[in-house]
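Reviewer has doubts. Consider these tokens.
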Amino acid sequence: MRRTGAVPNVSRVTCNRGVAERVEGRSGVELDFLRALQGLHTPELDALMVGVTTLGDRSLVWLVLGCALIVPRRTRRAGASILIALAFCTLVVDFALKPLVARSRPFMLDAGVELLIPKPGGWSFPSGHSAKSFAAAAALAVSLPTGCRRFAAPAFLLAMLIACSRLYLFVHFPTDVLAGAAIGAALGIVAARVLRVLSHPSRSA
């Protein structure tokens, strides 16, 4: 009877391992694609991609944008939506999905590629940089006042550049980036809608 208490933990470990093995099994073609990207390297492109990816480190550029937009009353909801979206992403991506899937990063599987940035910690799937960038851009697009929504386009452009930089720098697989972008965009929309309902509870009745 004493053994039954350990069964749930063993099952959870087995389940997580099974998810990781299925994801790792699809990494071969993606790894070949990333190796092909290494042929595009130039000093100018290296500097651009390192700079772009640095903007996404710890969601720095998006946190600054969110805090800046909170100050003017007209864009306050947009700023708050960005910050809530980033919080949602941290919970869903960093604390739930990454440990669940536990996918190795490309440089863990091919140590022959020299990295241009320090080795990032944590698991690969989904891409946190991509998720948070698209979450912020989507939250901005949904929550900006009607006359200002054209300013969301540069945010999406930056989000795409940050996502692409993760491939160029050999720290994420294409499916990490695609999944991160999709999850982030969805969470950004949810964050903006939740804030809208909380700001105007009578309209949701």
